[in-house]
Write a structure and sequence with these properties.
The protein has 475 residues and is of the alpha+beta class. Helix content is 65%, strand content 10%.
């Protein structure tokens, strides 16, 4: 933001300077033009008239002198009358000359008065010389003003070139250079170099704030892509490990059970079958979760819902994961009314509880209890399900992320996993128009979701009771 303000300040200063320079040039040009126009008017209105009068006066003075010489030679009164006529005409012309040049050349007023008193040829020629000298001075001043104007225009032109070059430098450094850096970074990104970032020390340090924001957005996008690429790599590595282990266990178990010379006892054979079931269930759960994630990302969840017995779906999921729970000595306990009818999709809800239970078993303490509780809210329009276990738990900050895709809490560092099970839970519950939440305190972790009951509300939740497998079979 600071650099953007600085650039805008530069632009304002330059723009103000250009405006002032333009105003100065305009004022100077107006002054020169005004003086030249005034000089031209003076030349037309005064100088030409004065020169005409002086030329006539010179001619009359010459004619008068000739008449005087002839009068002295002949004593003819005709020449005497001509001398008197020319004297009167010269004085009249001297008066007219005084009126013509007084506004333009007041300093010549004394000379014009002398012409009136003695209209001789020499003063007339001196007056002509004075007028020519002053006219030449005016022309010289006009020429000097024009030359000064030309010099000012040339200097201003050179200054404009310098200012334009500076603005182009600012434009290149503040816009074109950042865009070039952004294009280069985009090319690096397209080539697969996700670690490349747009340098904030380039033109962006003097650029506009919009380009700085664009560079920050690009860097955040690159960081996101790099993290997603890293997550993809870690996901594939974890997926390979997660599938490889149960498949290896399944293979070994089947090889052992298929050997006729193994001489296995019935109990050992049953344990082998249970191990194979556990391994196959882990693979099945992973595949179902991967398919669900793909469907959720493409918004392809389109469940057929029906009003069914909700605790029975919970018990079905518990039966599926019971071998895994027994392997860690964990007891599964369901607390629900025996006949709760809710509008939901059976297969999707079984997958939800399988993921919640597997998560509780995986991160729960050995020889502990995993509680599943089904209850209604105060209005009776929603069903609330809670799965709780005893384990290391997680921080309050992590409660907002446990349902994110590929997220793994700090307590999962010793456990391998894909980080998609709870994300699938969230997507399925949201597809049922429900909500998910998590809480953890004093070593107890609870994952909870709520669902709308559907048409007719909830049926069969006057209170809670512990429901076991033998009871559920009679529902």
């Amino acid at each position: 933001m600071f650099h953007s303000i600085r650039l805008r300040t530069h632009v304002l200063v330059v723009s103000g300077s250009m405006i002032c320079l333009t105003a100065l040039l305009g004022g100077k040009a107006y002054s020169v033009a005004r003086h030249q126009l005034q000089d031209t008017r003076d030349l037309v209105a005064y100088d030409l008239k004065a020169q005409t009068l002086l030329t006539r006066m010179e001619s009359m003075a010459v004619s008068r002198d000739q008449a005087q010489r002839k009068f002295r030679m002949t004593q003819d009164r005709v020449y005497s009358d001509l001398v008197s006529y020319y004297d009167a005409a010269l004085k009249s012309s001297a008066g007219s000359l005084s009126q013509v040049i007084a506004p333009a050349y007041p300093e010549l007023a004394g000379d014009t008065e002398a012409l009136k008193a003695s209209a001789q040829l020499h003063p007339i020629q001196a007056m002509r010389s004075s007028l020519e000298l002053k006219r030449e001075n005016k022309m010289n001043r006009a020429h000097e003003s024009s030359e000064g104007m030309v010099r000012l225009i040339i200097s201003s032109f050179l200054l404009c070139i310098g200012v334009t070059g500076w603005l182009l430098f600012l434009f290149y450094n503040g816009l074109l250079e950042p865009l070039r850096a952004l294009r280069e970074a985009t090319g690096k990104l397209r080539q697969g170099d996700l670690s490349h970032r747009v340098s904030m020390r380039s033109g962006f340090t003097h650029g506009v704030s919009e380009l700085a924001d664009l560079s920050e957005s690009f860097n955040r996008m690159a960081e996101k892509l790099e993290s997603l690429d890293q997550a993809k790599t870690e996901f594939l590595e974890t997926l390979s490990h997660e599938i490889k282990n149960p498949l290896a266990a399944l293979k070994e178990g089947l090889n052992l059970l298929s050997r006729k010379d193994a001489n296995l006892s019935e109990a050992s054979r049953q344990r082998g079958f249970n191990a194979c079931l556990i391994a196959s269930k882990r693979v099945e759960t992973m595949i179902n979760n991967l398919l669900s994630v793909a469907s959720a990302e493409k918004n392809l969840f389109d469940f057929e819902k029906a009003q069914k017995n909700f605790p029975l779906a919970v018990q079905t999921a518990m039966d599926e994961v019971r071998p895994l729970a027994e392997k860690k000595g964990i007891q599964l306990q369901l607390k629900a009314a025996p006949n709760v009818m809710v509008l939901f999709n059976w297969d999707a809800m079984v997958q939800v509880f399988e993921n919640l239970l597997l998560n509780a078993i995986k991160y729960g303490q050995e020889n502990s209890v995993v509680d599943v509780e089904v209850s209604a809210d105060a209005t009776g329009e929603k069903i609330i399900c809670t799965v709780s276990n005893v384990g290391s738990g997680f921080s309050d900050l992590e409660t907002t992320h446990v349902f994110d895709r590929f997220y793994r809490a700090s307590n999962s560092s010793k456990q391998k996993g894909l980080g998609i099970g709870l994300h699938v839970v969230k997507k399925i519950i949201e597809a049922h128009e429900g909500e998910v939440s998590a809480s953890s305190s004093a070593g107890k972790t609870s994952l909870q979701f709520s669902l709308p009951a559907g048409a007719g509300g909830l049926v069969g939740i006057p209170g809670l009771s512990s429901v076991h497998l033998s009871q559920m079979e009679n529902l």
